[in-house]
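note to self: the first set is below, dont mix up w the second
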Amino acid sequence: MQVSAIIPVSSNIMKHFLIALLFLPLISIAQSASPKHTVSEKVNVFLGSSGDHGQMTPAATYPFSMLSIGPQTYPKLHAGYEYKAKTFLGFTHNRFEGVGCQGSGGNILIKPYLGNNPSASALVKTAESAAPGNYQVSFSNKIKAAFTVVEKQGLEHYDFPAGEKGFYFDLKHTLANQFVSEQHEVGGQSISGYIEAKTTCNVGTYKIYYYITIDKPVKWADSANHKLTATLDASESNAEIRVSFSSVDVAHAKSALDKREFVQMQTASTRGWDEVLNHIYVKGDAEREKLFYSLLYRTMQSPYVISEKDGSYRATDGSLQHSKETMYNGWAIWDNYRTQLPLLAIALPERYKGITASISNLYAFGKKDYATQHEPSNTVRTEHAIVVLLDAYRKGFKVDFKGICDSLIKDVDRLDYSHPEKALESSYDAWALSQILKVLKKDDLSARYLKKAAEYKTYWKKDFEDVTRRDVDQVSARGLYQGTILQYRWFAPFDLKGLIELMGGDAAYIRQLDHFFENDQYNHANEPDIQAPYMYNASSQPFKSQALVHKLAVDTVVQYYFNDNSRGIDPFIDRIYKNKPDAYIRTMDDDAGANSAWFVFAACGFSPACVGSPVYYLNVPLFPTVSFAWPDGKVFHIATKNYSDQHPYISKVMLNGKILDRTWITHEEIMKGGQLVITASEKPSETGVKNTWVSDMRK
């Protein structure tokens, strides 16, 4: 079967791709080097923005930007917006997309108004549209607003009808996170200062500096309660506001502003999004392509760039630092360390160098499980950062383990083993530390922490072996965090060999996995068991994972568990991933790209086997053609022969023209570039059964 492909995001990449094709007879060029449409045009930014189905918004933003200009609606969801709401309270300038605790951010609310009383001027939506980096809305009172963002600066354009008008500023506005303090200075047509607010779940505190200018003369009125008005001349029919953020100081925020016109900023924002999205090319069903890029878009919003052009940035202790690498902050590592972060390591390795350095910096300047009191941006949580660093190191990224060794040990020594799931998760970190200490040739210490990690078996036998107890299907039973005993008992990613032995061997392991999935005990609405669908790959029946991943990604599923109950009596019966505002399972947050990245990996045909080990399990991709392209000209192409949605099983695998008798692949094999050809089948096969990859804490 002939498989067609295109990949090109630049002429240089296209050149290397064409050279590679000379040695890949199964592939032909189907389109020219320049895509007819920009990839960003396929993104639906309204996906997951209604109800408790993702907690996302259509806010205008830029890849990994701490600035996000979006609508504040009534009623609102976690990120400040509800797709079905018509009443707008104004527009805010940051938010953490897809997270819980009812959201965080929502700083600097600006409301355009008519008349002389902002509270009496209602904003009722009549139309809206949006695309990556851009958002536009019209109101019944004839006010129109449009926004675009490039890096950490944004441009807001407002059209007004005749009459009195102005802007209302609320500098203490937040979402569910608490306001802490602010200072501002008004001068002519500008306002600048800083805002401090609590991080997600009100644990730590972040501080952002800003500089805002209005392009028309205004009269300021300061109410002295963090709220101001800027009155425009009644004759003005439009006005533009430029806003810039910085984690360093007001001077850096001010210097980032430029004079580009709105259309130029829009173009630059679109170009920025296409640059990152084009690293992965898929070709297949047109509607599924739109879903894919809409979800890929969500994986590239955080962490946030916090460093300036001159290399300056604020560390998590508030100190001013400098780095040659681009530095990031804004973590949801517990949520996305198994999906979104590994995806960025492959798709955007040049950025991931800075992300790795930034996570390492947490240990150098102050790391808390959630957040410190001096965060340079909004953030969520950092558990399992040590696992991410081990994973990055084994994938070829530089990590200064020697410089942070003492902090790594201190962090692991204070881990919590008091609850059943905490014991399993803490054991994972202890294992990661043992592997890092081995790198540092601290063999005795390494052995000590490996022994500590092995204690997960004792905890597992105590709380997870017996599944006949009455509370095993109850969310939060025995102090569990957002999961059940039945879901957490699969969490031993670093030692599936040991877990299989605990369960009684391969046959018993398969039986228990079968029972788990056949009885709909799995919960895709949260992350505790998000790795479980891939766990048949460690058994003699890897084909069951292939079928299961396909079903969860694109087929109808039954889900009994939500984040606000135990085994519900009213199950969710539908596809999990839909390209619509109510996209996900009820109560399923996207969690900073975690759940979007799960789909992206499944769509590409491989997913991390164990974070901390540079290995991926294979499945049949959701497209006939998938390609990764990198700035160095290398291309990794995945072609599926005999492709069909009714063919979820792998019958044959070839890598660079040679048979690959396994259903897993290494990070190095992917990043070298080349061609992976997967032959799909309607029925299960024995492919890879004799050459499985099973994590083993002793190796």
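second set (the one i keep forgetting abt)
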Amino acid sequence: MVYKNKPLTIATIFVFFIFYSFGLLAQDTTKQGGDANKDLLFFMDGKEILRSGMNNINPDDIAMVTVLKAESSKSYGEKGRNGVILIETKVHCRQIFQKYLSSKSTKYQEVLTSNGGDKKIQYILNGKVLKNNYEGDLASIADSTFISVDVIEAAELKSYNVSEMLFGVVIKTKVKEKPVINEIPKSKFEPELLIISPGKISFDPSATKAIEEKNKALKSNISNQEQPDLSNEKAENIRLMRQSAIAYMEKLNFFNQIPMFSQNYLGYRFIERFPNTLILLKDITAENGLNDLAKIAVDEKMPYVLSFPSAHVAKEKGKFVLHLKVQLYEAESNSLVVDKEYTGDQINQGFEFTCDGSIQCIINNALSAALPDVILQIASNNRTLQGERILALKRFEIIKTDIFLKNSDPSLIKSVIGESDSTINLPDLYQTFYSDDKSKFVGFLFRKVDKQNLKGLSDSKTDHNVKILSGSTIRDKDFLDIPQNYAYIVKGVLSNGRWYYKKDMVTYFEAENESEGKLEYLNNLQGWGYFKEGLTDIDSDFWEGKLFEKIEDKRKHPDWDEHKDMWEDVERENRNYIGMYELVAERLKEEKSATEKVLEDSIANNIFKPFYDASIKSKQHQISGYKSALKDFVLIYDSNKRVIINPIEVKDDKGIVTVRYFVILSGSDEIYEWNYFPKSIKKKGVINNSVMENLATVTKWDYSYDTLDDEQFWNNCVLLKENGIYRYLKSLK
């Protein structure tokens, strides 16, 4: 399931980001519930970033966010099992839409190139002049919605009341109809919660300007939003929640963000544990406290109503502070199970409630204190969770008495791993599991480590993916200190007579002592499918479950057509590994990559570099200098390596730098130049992406591709002959 957001600002990052991502994960409310505190996988502009790196992102630089729930994130392997956040910056989105529109209009490409960019171009989408924060809108245009693009001159722009631009780009797409709010069925969702608007609102006069600016920004962002198409949303509760939020956003202001943020966060926390969660918004208030809340609960048929009777912005010690009264009404007991005032200051706490230190933070921080109490009350009285807690405790007792204390046999694991792997300390192995046929294993390792902070951990090359579970907050002095309990598993698979293994689930966490730490980490078995669903019996499918997933054929997935654009790169990378265990495929990919690296270095150092150096020395082929676009030479070839292309920046004897393509053919020591594309002159100080842009017109390729296996491209664009002579290859002798 994918929700693509429109341009975000800090005032709306939670409104549009987490709101469109209901249900990525839910926090376990029991310590022994297994698989708690799950981690998301973050990517920015296609590159993986640490969750901590989110704190360094300027929200105003974000153009679009794609949120993949657990089902849709399987293609990212185990790291993405709890959900994936794909962040795309405005700069990246601008590159995307410029490339796409260039493929649709040669006139646009000419204007873009001749003007050195689009600073003098006015974009107009479906009749609307785009002024600010439009990068995500344009980057979202695809063939399924695209109708046309036309370039107009400055004179024609006057009809759009635009006078400062030289050109206009008029884009037409299929416009989605505004969704209709349906009648909401009741009593088939769990849990159900209605969130209503703040009651009495007040603020210090010094906050007037900041609040007015936020209201203006909110209004601007909302006016720029296209209505999302909810017709393809299969989950009824998600559709109803989003419809509710869309209706509520029509009156969105600074204070009405409080219910919106609450819906976002509570949905984010509840929905994975409860796929049928229903959390709705309504623009009403409870003026008379308990009596009004009771009536609202009856009228709306809601077991819980969350209210904010008062919200006051004060200025204390030179900073803004929000004093927020919060009430949670429970219909079953006809009582307020939460009735408390919370405060929020301007300090950026990071993580789910990250902010930029502005007045926006006071809402984030007040809710960061209040909403965990709301969750606790709803969860503690939820019969499903009560049953799960009982089951979790029973399973924990089995782990503690029957598994933790049993003798382990480390011999097989030690024989597979050996002493050569410095990332795995075999003496730390304290419990082992083997499949009946001894073709798979899981080993648990634990040790106390020296005190270190986040910088020390990030500088360490031992582990690539780490989970940190700590009770410290950003306000604590030891916030950057890493817990000293270090645990991980090693898992292995015997495939085709060879063992493959992987260090995984690396975690730093807090525990009273070594014994407690080992037991607590072993309790992860609950979340890793060791027990049958809803039972305390051991599940034989554990060896084919979460820890031992296989590469699936994404083309056979029922949602392939819907998510093809998002999945096709991963599908291409995995195509030769379908049906293999993921850890086997990962190792084979690493080995293949290492082999290819050796080959590429050999070709670069023994063929291309000597040719370029000799050309410089002999002053041939108009080469007086050269530079690779990347650190290593870029080589493009198919799986058979019958043709190898090296795109490279070449400086001629006049100092002009162009991108040229040099080629070698299998079985020949002759060098050719590929002349399919016109020469692209690199401008000083400008990053040259002409290689990707050129190839995008004839095939699908970027720098992440290991091979380019497009037979039509090689035959028609590279190796095509006319009268026995290559049409696009010129021999350089």
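remember for set 2: The chain has a mean pLDDT of 84.
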